[in-house]
């Protein structure tokens, strides 16, 4: 079947860009920061070479180009014939029943926002979801952190893997201080050995019975979890898009972008008059990255001052403009369960309520593909930087006169 392409006013102005050669990313040894990805320069065309004709059938890699419905149907049909069902199969976050409420997990082209107060566990959640994505043999997770170095994130993952969610065996858990003590003591012992063999970090972790299982679990996905210590001055929205695009090309589109956190992203050369305008530019840019690169984007969002003073945090308390609500496909708000229990309810028991201090309520306040305003709870094991992903629907009455039933 022949199809007609819409004319492009620049068809005769310039030849199409030459393809770029990008090798799949590699983390190298555990603990090493990711090396910057170098972009090879396209070779210059010969002086007399005629510009090549653009393909008459744009693919998902040519966004923002007009296409007929027939072209879209043919492209989708080709993917299914090749066995590529990624457009129809979501990526599970590993948190249940959250996955069930958001349609099975993260979907391509969608922007997911995660909001909450300081210390509620937003980074723990995002990093654990990234770990769950990267644990799949065909998927990559790209984690940008404006708050922590890659080495600190690695240490958090070692603590998480020591309790091995979802099994969550606290008896073998290693806290951050325990991890530091193991490394320092073993390193000092090595200096005292007569042969002077101090040992490497991986050797210390591998030979210690408390850290060896965690290291083995982490090594299974170490090459598929890519981390960057982002800078508010250097890592702009445009830089994030360029790095993500190279990873999309290197991984055949099997990558999920995680941003920690949205308000820290710099914009350039765009300029904003205030934070609201800046947040609007950033959230629209992240949504465009999801759409144009055909990937899921998962971003943490900080709360504003009013939200930090509120009894219960909501979507409208997130720092920035109302564009956060408009642009995202899914918005999840985190609150400490103890703080949002309806304490004036007749069944409230102050002694029993103390057990909920380590539980966090995840509220799906926006969900374009399903039900919204649904509450579920997960137990936080903060010393090990991990949630028990086996959650449940909230049974107790919460403030805002809202009762959730299973």
List the helices and strands and how they pair.
Blueprint: H1 69-81, H2 98-101, E1 111-116, H3 122-134, E2 140-145, H4 150-163, H5 176-192, H6 201-207, H7 212-219, E3 225-229, H8 237-250, E4 255-260, H9 275-293, E5 297-302, H10 305-309, H11 323-327, E6 330-336, H12 337-340, H13 350-353, E7 359-367, E8 374-381, E9 386-387, E10 392-393, E11 397-398, E12 402-403
Parallel strand pairs: 1-5, 1-6, 2-3, 2-4, 4-5
Antiparallel strand pairs: 6-7, 7-8, 8-9, 8-10, 11-12
Helix pairs in contact: 4-7, 6-7, 8-9
Task: Describe the structure concisely for a colleague.
The chain is 31% helix and 15% strand. With 406 residues, it is α/β, with parallel strands linked by helices.
Task: Walk me through this protein's architecture.
The protein is α/β, with parallel strands linked by helices and 406 residues long. It has one domain: P-loop containing nucleotide triphosphate hydrolases (Rossmann fold, 3-Layer(aba) Sandwich), CATH 3.40.50. 31% of the residues lie in helices and 15% in strands. Strands 1, 2, 3, 4, 5, 6, 7, 8, 9 and 10 form a ten-stranded mixed sheet that branches. Strands 11-12 form a two-stranded antiparallel ribbon. A hairpin with a 4-residue loop joins strand 8 and strand 9. The longest helix is centred in the last third of the chain and has 19 residues. The N terminus and C terminus are likely disordered.
């Amino acid at each position: 079947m022949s199809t007609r392409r819409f004319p492009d006013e620049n068809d005769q102005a310039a030849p199409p860009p030459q393809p770029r050669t990008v090798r799949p990313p590699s983390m190298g040894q555990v603990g090493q920061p990711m090396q910057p990805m170098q972009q090879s320069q396209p070779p210059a065309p010969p002086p007399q070479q005629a510009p090549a004709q653009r393909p008459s059938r744009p693919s998902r890699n040519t966004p923002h180009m007009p296409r007929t419905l027939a072209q879209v149907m043919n492209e989708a049909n080709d993917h299914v014939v090749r066995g590529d069902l990624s457009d129809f199969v979501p990526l599970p976050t590993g948190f249940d029943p959250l996955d069930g409420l958001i349609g099975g997990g993260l979907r391509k082209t969608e922007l997911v926002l995660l909001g909450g107060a300081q210390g509620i566990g937003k980074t723990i959640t995002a990093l654990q979801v990234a770990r769950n994505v990267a644990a799949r043999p065909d998927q990559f997770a790209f984690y940008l952190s404006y708050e922590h170095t890659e080495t600190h994130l690695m240490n958090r993952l070692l603590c998480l893997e020591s309790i091995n969610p979802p099994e969550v065996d606290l008896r073998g858990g290693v806290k951050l201080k325990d991890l530091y003590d193991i490394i320092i003591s073993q390193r000092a012992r090595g200096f005292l050995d007569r042969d002077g063999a101090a040992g490497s970090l991986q050797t210390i972790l591998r030979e210690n019975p408390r850290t060896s299982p965690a290291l083995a679990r982490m090594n299974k996905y170490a090459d598929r979890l890519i981390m960057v210590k982002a800078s508010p001055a250097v890592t702009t929205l445009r830089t994030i898009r360029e790095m993500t695009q190279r990873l999309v090309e290197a991984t055949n589109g099997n990558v999920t972008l995680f941003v920690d956190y949205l308000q820290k992203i710099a914009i350039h050369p765009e300029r904003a008059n205030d934070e609201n305008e800046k947040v609007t530019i950033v959230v629209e840019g992240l949504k465009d990255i999801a759409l144009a690169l055909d990937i899921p984007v998962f971003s943490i969002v900080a709360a504003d001052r009013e939200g930090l003073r509120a009894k219960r945090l909501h979507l409208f308390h997130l720092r920035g403009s109302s564009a956060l609500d408009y642009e995202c496909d899914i918005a999840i708000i985190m609150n400490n369960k103890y703080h949002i229990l309806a304490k004036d309810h007749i069944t409230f028991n102050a002694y029993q309520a103390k057990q909920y201090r380590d539980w966090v309520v995840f509220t799906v306040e926006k969900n374009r593909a399903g039900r919204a305003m649904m509450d579920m709870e997960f137990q936080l094991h903060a010393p090990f930087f991990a949630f028990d992903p086996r959650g449940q629907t909230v049974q107790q009455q919460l403030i805002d006169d809202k009762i959730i039933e299973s």
